[in-house]
Description:
- The structure holds 3 protein chains of 3 kinds.
- Chain A is mainly α.
- Chain A is built from 15 helices and 3 strands.
- Chain A has 2 domains: 1-64; 72-261 and 269-350, no CATH class.
- Chain A has helices at residues 3-38, 54-64, 75-91, 110-131, 135-166, 171-177, 183-186, 188-202, 213-216, 226-250, 265-292, 298-325, 330-350, 352-355, 366-370, and strands at residues 362-365, 375-377, 380-382.
- In chain A, a hairpin with a 2-residue loop joins β2 (375-377) and β3.
- The longest helix of chain A has 36 residues, at 3-38.
- Chain B is an alpha+beta fold.
- In chain B, β2 (45-46) and β3 form a beta hairpin.
- Chain C has helices at 56-60, 65-73, 80-95, 101-130, 134-154, 176-199, 202-208, 216-222, 227-231, 238-241, 262-286, 338-343, 346-350, 355-365, 369-373, and strands spanning 16-20, 32-38, 41-48, 163-164, 167-168, 253-256, 305-313, 316-324, 330-336.
- Chain C has a 3-stranded antiparallel sheet with strand order 1-2-3.
- Chain C folds into 2 domains: 2-48, no CATH class; 56-373, Cytochrome-c3 Hydrogenase, chain B (Orthogonal Bundle), CATH 1.10.645.10.
- Chain C is globular and about 75 Å long.
- By secondary structure, chain C is of the alpha+beta class.
- Chains in contact: A-B, A-C, B-C.
- The interface between A and C is large, with 54 and 66 residues.
Amino acid sequence: MSWQNLVFYVLGAVGLIIFLSLTVMVLTWIERKFLARIQQRMGPMRVGPHGLLQPIADVIKLISKEDILPSWADKPIYWIAPLAIFVPAIAIWVTIPFSETLVLQNLDLGLFYIAAISVLSVLGLVMAGWGSANKYSMLGGLRAVGQLISYEIPFIMAILGVAMLSQSLSLIDIINDQSKIANIIVQPIGFLIFLAAGLAELGRTPFDIHHAESEVVGGPFVEYSGAHWAIIQLAEYVNTFAIAALIAVMFLGGWSWPSMPFSGIPHHLLSVIWFLIKIYAVILLIFWIRGTYPRLRIDQLMSFGWKVLVPVSFINIVFTGFVRFYNLHWSILTVLSLITIGSIFYLIYKTPQQSRGENSIRIVPSKEAASRPPENYGDVNVR
Amino acid sequence: MLGSIKGLKVTLVTMMRKPVTAQYPIPSKRLDIEKRFMGFPALLWDDSNNEPYCTGCMVCVRECPTQCMSATMTDNDKFTEEKSTRKKIIDSFEINLSRCIVCGICVDVCNFDAIEMSHEHELSKFQRNANRANLESLLEMGKTFQEKIGWKPVQIKNIGDPVLRSKLQAEAKEKLKKLNSTDAKVDTKPEDLSK
Amino acid sequence: MEINKNVNESGSMVDMLINMGPQHPSTHGVFRLVLQLDGELIVDAEPHIGYLHRGSEKLCEAESYSQVVTLFDRLDYVANLNGELAFCMAAEKLLELEIPDRAWYIRTILCELNRIASHMLFYGVYGLDAGAMTPVLYGFRERERIQSLFEQVTGARMMHNYIRIGGVKEDLPSGFENKLYSVIDELDAAIEECDELLTQNEAFLARTKNVSRLPIEDAVNFGVTGPILRSTGLIEDVRISEPYGIYDRFDFGIPIGNTGDCWDRYYVRMQEMRESLSIIKQAMKQIEPGEIQAKMRRIVRPPEGECFVRTESPRGDLGVFLVSDGSQNPYRVKVRAPSFANLQAIKHMLEGVYVADAVVILGSLDIVLGEVDR
Lengths: 383, 195, 374
């Protein structure tokens, strides 16, 4: 490796971390404002105009806070855990491109690398859960593992579907392959699977099971405070940004769809902006879902993962393979996908458990209720 | 599946609306206080002869559910000079506003229009006993309250200035006579007319 | 009490004991639940109450009748007016007072508004228990409308001390009617909106449907009342079975569930809000000007005797047993708190469910710790 390369990588890595930190600050502000608007609140309004400087105030506050160590904590594990969550979150970004040239290192096995690295952060969650010596933390950490085994397979299957379409695992190849038509139109089913699995990987509503505030209080992060908590939170948002970027790359066509009429420098600049717009659109979708949905139970997530997502992702792969093998037009895959989605929604809608919902409450008029005969239940006569 | 799509629609529609929250400590952006709002109790000031309405009769002290008040009375010098209708006057009065539960019972039982629930409700202090309000501060609270809502005494008999009181009472009797002559059934007390 | 502990060969317990509360965010106050967990499954649960015990019943014995009303404000601090009403009705029963019609209409309107406010709070925190973030703010938004209305009428947002023995404290302020009608319109739309946001959401259905089904027999034997009893399919409402005040003058529906699961408990309350609105509308049509306070002596001194009254508070059957020895202070006040009775079923409900369900089940009981511990 020449020294120019070394300088490039070091500067690139530093630049990436700075960029991601700034992005996280923007994201926290956007999330708070967006959720506030959904709930008819104002959100942060004090620090700067419309609370724009709130993230900076938050960072200063978190850094200056005391780092508390529970007396029974497993010290090395407790201190390493935030790092174990943070490093994989940053490492994913090595291979995610912002434009055709603006990428730290484009890997030919980029998607494979991402799928492999993103799992690692769960290890950090388990470490945090165990190291905190707190029962709620441990429940949360173990929930994270339980979650992992249910979303990871559909996550990878959805990636496979995309790889089959573009015949490559390199992210830039995948984006360039979508210059005519984006994968979300060709393979809507893959998009939905990846969105669901991605939400589960991020631990965001409706799959925020491992740090559910109302159940396990905060999961693995209960005991953390100050800078370590800030690092964990940073990693969470970096992961959110990464999943949004992956969706933009794999399904929304990155910067290449719809193609721009420019070339040269303006093209590069526009492609970065265009790509960021797509990422932020996905992020707003994630925040919107967070503002609307309740949380699922852990066993329901598992049955959703294994009984719905895994079979559907297999169907997705079979259909994609069928269309690729016979070299059929992409619209056939779209139609097949839509039919599958429709039938799944119909099946979910027709499940006996759900369909009974509306009719189980009847309203008895007061006059009728007043003239009813007494009834006997248990040991008690009820009039 | 329809249910969750409906929910997404609801949140989207709500997002287009204006926020309903206020920005609390900023004076211009706070919510208004209703006229009947019960803040902490305050003692009222009689402008007609510049003394408090309170005579220190201890009814409110006895009726307070949390025993947060204490009071002592003294002879009124102005009464001997025939400048006041109050034979006795409040000497010292203390309400521990940290104990007060803002129930309004003291206002109900007071016969002299002397105590009223003011609109004062922000009393955060740095000391535990900093909210023990003495006579001066209670009267201060009362004066601001009176000014704010344009308070007037409910009963003529409680007015401190003897001249003004007898004048008003005479007027009220006149009115009552007139009313009685036109419609004998109207049951009006002199107190009601001054409202 | 025998606990079936899972033990290993050496005899030590392998289940995890976990304290849910008193500082857990979703125990609705200072309620402590010791859960014995086998993984995520609850093997056994033991509720502990008493962290908010203030001795209200004993305090009543040292206070005069008009002062006791302030204590009843603080029992069920989410539905204060309903608590006041229960005590005032008991004292009036001993005094054999005739309450003027207008006073009763004012009481009914405010109590039903308070019922809506209470159920709105339930809606919000139930959404939060299930993991949704937005319902709680919608619930508080609607509650705020009702509370500002209360502030206009009673002068306070929570601790009103407005319903007095023999009537109410003050007449309705001018302009109240218009404000009330506008609030009713807003509430109508808001209940619809809240319903759309949460009720049919698949994730919410999955969390609440068929969770902790309570058969009628069990519910009756546990002494469960209110929306929870009605959700099991039993038609029981004090407003119907022992109509007090002027409730026999209104036509309203009683929502009845048929399974007694968490979703039914939730939806019975949603429907009750609609019925309460219809009661308020009817009352506003029927209300006429008149006296608001019965003719009585200023110092309340009921004759020697005892009485028991039942009212339908938002949480269920709120009963007050009042013994008078003829003095200024009550001799004994016993409150039959609906939250306390409803909480009795929790141990039965929690066996064999997931930790996540425990939160949802506890939320569906809608307990107020001020009333449980008294």
